[in-house]
Predict the structure.
Amino acid sequence: MTVAGRVRRESVRMQAAELFEQEVKPPEVARRLRVSLKSAYQWHQLWREGGVGALSSRGPSGSRCRLSPRCLEKLAAYLEQGPAAHGWVEDQVWTAARVAMLIGRKFHVSYSVSGATRLMHRLGFSPQVPARRVAERDEQAVTAWKEAIWAEVKGPGRPAGATSASRTKQASPADRPEAGPGDDADTPRS
């Protein structure tokens, strides 16, 4: 959930608390605040048990970061050094998979690729997706090959008039054979 979403959710809960204090019933709160009936009843229960404070946010949900603030600083420094400094010399791109591997190597903590992506965003980085193109690619040679050799290998294909399309319609009873394949002519049909 975005920060704006969390702030809106917090605001709606506080509005619900005000309505509960005015003795407005949960179905009416749900209608006025445009929330689900289930949410309104849950909030009402929390409000009855702990007041307005029970409806205040407890911070973002989800699991805690498994790296300490000091380790996060170190990770940011490692990312600043670039991938080549950590063994990825083929290109200068941090992918989420590489960051997850780096975290495992340096901090002995296992992170999934999606977890590494979220951690990178938290640190102000974004994972990069490497282009699947060879650095030494010769565009002129590729174009020449497509025009000369590929056209020859591919072949001409079917001419435009050679295709056929027609609607299928059921044959009339007069067009049907008397006996079908495997039918005995002597055996009456049922």
The chain is about 50% helix and 0% strand.
